[in-house]
Every structure is written in structure tokens, then in C-alpha cells.
Amino acid sequence: MAAAFLVAGPNWKGEAPKGVKKVIRSETELLLAIYRTQLFDPSDLDNVKKVQAGYKVQPLSKFLGTAAPKAAPVINFIKPLGHAEQKTSVKFFDILDFLLQFCPINPSEKALRARFARLGYRCGEKVRFRQALT
């Protein structure tokens, strides 16, 4: 059963357009979509391929047949840490700072952000206690 869904970031304002079954809200401006299609047994594989061929991802403007909005600013993504560094490097805090700029404070995270602030960490600023950790 085909349906159209709208994935919207935290700053999107509006109502579900006609033809959209549901608006799925993302808490952040960064999102990863993973699609799954259930396979009951090997004989069902052709049906799975047919369903997968019907998946379509498009911007809202294309769905509505309207002009595309102004392009978002280019993001100069920070280099991720290697697997071995992930557990020990203080560069983690640089990555945390970078990512939190795209994450409005969720009500469930207010206490956590307050704890960060007590440590001298405020989103959008360089980590003040980093020097003490190196």
C-alpha cells in the first residue's frame, strides 16, 4: 500500500500537504533514512524488488510542483575520528560541538545540557575545559 510521508526538521513550519499521509518530525537538522522491506521467504524476493523499485525520495518542492527554496549553506563537515580514537581522544568534544550546532535543545536533554554548561561547555563555543584534558 503506497503512501507519501513528509520528513521535516525542527524548524519546518506548516501543515501536511494534500496527499501526505503523515509528517515525521526530526529533532535535528541532520537525518539518516534507512528503508527496510520485509522478505518473508526467498520466493517473495520478486515482490520485495517491486516494492523497493517504488520507493521515491524527493524534496517537498518537487512533490508540490513548486519552485525549490534557496539552497542551504554548504556545511564543512568535521573529520570523524578513527575507530581506535573514538574511545580516548579529546577531539570527541570538537565533534560534539560541531554536531550540537544542528541540534536544538530537546526538552528531554535540558538537564544534560545544564551539566555540560557547569563543566564549561556551551554549544557553539569551543570547549573551554579541553586544555585541561590534553
Describe what you observe in this structure:
- By secondary structure, the protein is of the alpha+beta class.
- The chain has helices spanning 45-53, 60-64, 92-100, 110-118, 130-133; strands spanning 4-8, 20-25.
- The chain has two domains: 4-64, no CATH class; 85-133, no CATH class.
- It contains five helices and two strands; from the N terminus they run ββααααα.
- Strands 1-2 form a two-stranded parallel ribbon.
- 0% of the residues are buried.
Radius of gyration: 21 Å
By secondary-structure content and strand pairing, the structural class works out as: alpha+beta
Instruction: Note the total helix count.
Output: 5
Instruction: Please provide the count of β strands.
Output: 2
Main β-sheet: number of strands, strand sense, barrel status? 2 strands, parallel
Give the number of domains.
Answer: 2
How far apart lie the N and C ends? Answer: 55 Å
Strand content: 5-15%
Q: Estimate the helix proportion, in percent.
A: 25-40%
Large-scale geometry: extended
Poorly predicted regions: 130-134
What is the mean pLDDT?
85
Question: Reading side by side through the largest sheet, how are the strands ordered?
Answer: 1-2
Topology pattern, helix = H, strand = E: EEHHHHH
Q: How do the strands and helices of this protein lay out in sequence?
A:
Layout: E1 4-8, E2 20-25, H1 45-53, H2 60-64, H3 92-100, H4 110-118, H5 130-133
Parallel strand pairs: 1-2
What labels would you give this structure?
2 strands; alpha+beta; disordered C terminus
